[in-house]
Amino acid sequence: xxxISKLISFDKINSTNTYVKENYKNLDNGxxxxxxxxxxxxxxxxxxxxxQEGGLWFSILFKKNLKHPNFYTKLSxxxxxxxxKNLKISAKIKWPNDIFFKGKKLSGILTEIISKNGKVxxxxxxxxxxxxxxxxxxxxxxxxxxxxKFENDLILEMFIDKFNIYYKFxxxxxxxxxxxxxxxxxxxxxxxxxxYKIKKITSEYLIVEKNGLNKKIKSIHELExx
Length: 226
Ligand code: BTN
Description:
This protein is α+β, with helices and mostly antiparallel strands. Helices cover 29% and strands 31% of the residues. The chain is globular. Biotin binds at residues 15-17, 38, 41-44, 47, 49, 51, 57-59, 98, 108-110, 126-128.
């Protein structure tokens, strides 16, 4: 059983994921590291994650009974959808794990493996949720969508409660997690994006087809030209 209980909080840090990676040996399983501001927030595929005050930026450390990294990413995505639903936001997952509302990004997840001598030691899941912070035009926030200012602490508490419940359930029935993840994707199998028909969806890649040729892609930007 996982109990997310320990919380380490910073006003400012380079990146909560980096902190966890550097200190995982001294941190307990299930520790959450939270920061009001990140000076070097990181996104997927080496991108920068702008992390100004007002957003919810945190990482969770997993050290025991490890599952595949995708398990934690999907679990976090499904948990985010659930708490957003409680805030009356019907968000969706843009493959593989971005949380979107009406074409704009609300949240991103960065799962990283910590390994030593080729052996996985721990997994860190970093979550960035735009709550009351400013966002670029292609992003949105809980404040923008609802017009209401929610406390970040409250949202984090909701996340932890839901995550713990889902964690217990989906560890027993991981296939149901994949079903829930697929059901909540914006683009589904057989959809067409810019002439590419989606033939297969996995957590790591998509198989798409155009003009009779199959292509394996690892980023949705390869289809959108972004
Ligand atoms: C993405 O959409 O590319 C993933 C963004 C993940 C951002 C979070 S914020 C907390 C944690 N610390 C980081 O440096 N990144 C993740």
